[in-house]
Design goal:
heterotrimer; A mainly alpha; B mainly alpha; C mainly alpha; A: 19 helices; 2 strands; B: mainly alpha; Helix Hairpins; 5 helices
Chain lengths: 493, 117, 485
Amino acid sequence: MIRQHLPILQVIIPLLSAPLSVLLHKRWLVWGLTVLASMCAFIISILLLQQVLARGVISYELGGWAAPWGIEYRIDVVNAFVLVIISAIGAIVPLYAARSVEREIAADRISLFYTAYLLCLAGLLGIAATGDAFNVFVFLEISSLSSYILISLGHDRRALTASYQYLVMGTIGATFILIGIGLAYMMTGTLNMMDLARRVPAVADTRTIRAALAFLTVGISLKLALFPLHLWLPNAYAYAPSTVTAFLAATATKVAIYLLLRFLFTIFGAVLSFEEMILHFVLMPLALVAVFSASIVAIFQDNLKRMLAYSSVAQIGYIILGISFVSVTGLTAGILHLFNHALMKGALFMALGCVVYRLGSVRLRDIAGLGRRMPWTFAAIVIGGLSLIGIPLTVGFISKWYLVLAALESQLWWVAVLVLVGSLLAVAYVWRVVEAAFFQPPPRHAAQYQEAPLSLLIPTWILIGANIYFGIDAERTVSIAQRAAEWLLRGPS
Amino acid sequence: MELLGLYNYWIVVFLMMAGFYVVIARGNLVKKIVGLNLFQTSVFILYISMGKVEGGTAPIVEKGITVYSNPLPHVLILTAIVVGVATTALGLALVVRIKEAYGTVEEDEIHRQDESL
Amino acid sequence: MNATTALWLTIAVPLAGAALVVVLDRRPNQREGATLLTAVALLALVLRLWFALQAGETPAKVLVETLPGIPLALAVEPLGMLFALVASTLWIVTSIYSIGYMRAHHEKHQTRFYCAFAVALASAMGVAFAANMFTLFVFYEALTLSTYPLVTHAGTQEARRAGRVYLGLLLGTSIGLQLFAIVWTWMLTGTLDFRDGGILRDAAPPTVIGALYIIYIFGIGKAALMPFHRWLPAAMVAPTPVSALLHAVAVVKAGVFTVLKVTVYLFGIDLLAHSGVSEWLPYVAAATILIASLVAMSQDNLKLRLAYSTVSQLGYVVLGALLANAAGIIGGAMHIAMHAFGKITLFFCAGAILVATHKTEISQMRGLGRSMPITMAAFFICSLSIIGLPPMGGMWSKWFLALATLDAGKLSLLAVLMVSTLLNVAYLMPIPIRAFFSSDKATATGIKEAPLPCLIALIISAIGCMLLFFYPDPVYRLITPVVAR
């Protein structure tokens, strides 16, 4: 009985927990509720993935209204995987938040922080779960509005301006998406994704549909921070509370990428998107420019959170690059990196949160020689950094492997070379941290710093462990990503 | 006159560009929010006008009425309006906080203060 | 013990040793005891595998299937066996030496040192016993990363700069070129296993094979083929035991060993002989041999001179591989062992001189022979081995390499070998000669021999060098099956 309602429970549990947490108000009660709700979401997503892998697509009609009139939740292998990614990160973050938030957010706002967190989680899960184009917009705004709040909670006042900047750009992006959905609705008279997919080919030659595709691509690219629409991201990540950065970096942009995949491949179809609109000629150069420009900028950052934020822009470039090959291997690489990058960046930002917890700063000169004072924290940063570079036995290597393979299969050997050179740039920015932490003499007052508390280290190391585990035994993730890629390329059927 | 017949779209495009211009060109954070509102409103009009069916009336079930406007876009845009209101409220709240923290709502002034850090 | 168990234990034991070292952080005696114990255990395991190999077994183990069709797997074969034997034997000697050196030199962060050392040895074992190119690449990178803390050990500005060069060149070549070549190989053949006769036969036209081979050769930065040799002199800022074991044996030999593996088991020497690259690529190696020897002559810093000498000697092994004939492979593989024993002793001597006199420059070492006779005698003996004169092991490998150039019909390369030998004489011999026969007495006052563990270590390795001349047979018999099949 309850099994068949899983798709809606996935979204509704965190969504309803949010107002409930406002009522509970007591900080530890709210925290307990958040942990409970996010754990539920995680378990549900695992169940959904199992179900989809075993029995294929799940279609759920909201309120019993049949699609295409009612809202349909449609889980296939692609969004089942994305749901697992989001809810897994979403389940680990609250464990970490308990101590980290205490240090970084004013006491009277902590319960509201959890409310916004739950709303954001619900929004992200909703985007991934729904099969209705307008529903996407609604959930997108739920997650965006709550993420603006989360970012503005940072204790540096620049968090406010960063949040404001994100709000303006995010709203423009969301409005573009709204226009795109409206134009598509105009031509097809439907909002259900599968229905849209069936009706689009008949009107594919109209300028309206093409405009819709263009608006959606630009709007989503803004949300996923594709170069040159990434300007909101570095500040937002740098000044948000550590917990929030870890959560958003691992999930928000990933959901936007999922949305791009959904619209380009499922709704408009690879034929229209790439053969007629030749979007890959736009996406591939942008992705490569993103990889290089953002990596180079990252090398010169003094604030480590900002450095990793730029690195995120570069990594998003890799994901988009994988997509722009429009081949099974390329999409596999993109989807794999979606998962792998969530693991790396989640872990790295959490480790930086440990540094913030002890030092209150993440500037390069402040961490000099602290590798010996905080061995576990900096070991986590080193392993996460190696994963970012793509050293074998970490998840980063798996992504790189498939990206290079996809480039070679598409006869684009120079792209393969660029991908590899890009990872060398990662060596440059990761190694600045390693050098500073382990091979510079500690300042005189270093003795006062201790290792971060276990409640921060354990969640961090869970993600680091995942980085290594899925780097050593990648068969499962690869096979899921491959199925997702094949599913997307096959288009609606 | 096909060009004039599409006047609703002209309004939409005009409002959208005006809003967009304000967001980009104005340094005052409150004015940016106003521009953002204009920008969003243009899309509301796009949706609302697309629901119009020629000769149709309000979509209320009543005897003798066979042609009525498509209510779905109107419902959709009701949601979008709510979202717009929430965005505006949040944006203004942020502006208030920024004013408290920096003592100004002018972008270049804020920028100068951050630079001097 | 089962040979298969011994196989994966060769990696697990040094790693466990590393963990033990960290645990015993505050108790130096037990910590060094743990290192020695681990080294002995490792040698026992490797010997166990050697006996298994001689008995005709070929232990193999798949650790985990990382990607579909690309497992992390280990297997024993003759070339790897040789490399593992050399590395694990010399680890024991180096461990003894380190104890004397590190304490006498009052180095800091000794726990980190011993821990990284053990991890590096585990990686070297992984390289030696890798069953496919992916596994080899994994441990190759692990070796780079685990030796980085050893290079930057001092933590000074200079050490960090050297570390950057080290990491930049080794990661740059391995990720930028080698990984590229590996993915390409996978795309062409759908496998990365090391197989007799190679896997690339009929996979691509000769031009592609040639291009791929070049990318491999330059992608294996640890082989220090010019122009990617800069990391090796840079690594000389490390403490001397590191230069001795890692940058004369484990790391650089891992490089040339990888070249041999790629040549023999990915391409197959027949394929290379027909692809055309073996016509001109050996001259790149020859150039490295000569240029590095010339540079070595101009170095006054003893360790730097030895480092350039290593670059030049590595060129011999690469040359052997690139000639792509039986004698070349045998000569190259033998040179891995011969050069290892010779060069490690020379580094031991350099470290002993540093500890006893705090001298690093050759010009300051006149007359040292009188106060440090044992050290300088060992230096002299092993210089002979590097040069390739009897009664030292280095003679045999040069012999086979010379044969290989004749087999390939390249007399000019034979000339290169001969000239290089003369250059070796020119840059190595003056050091002991001046030490013994110079009348400069000013330096000799109040200097004693280095600490006992250092002396023991360098005597052992010097004796080993001589034994290899009289008993090269085990090495020879170990390698011949590689080319006989």
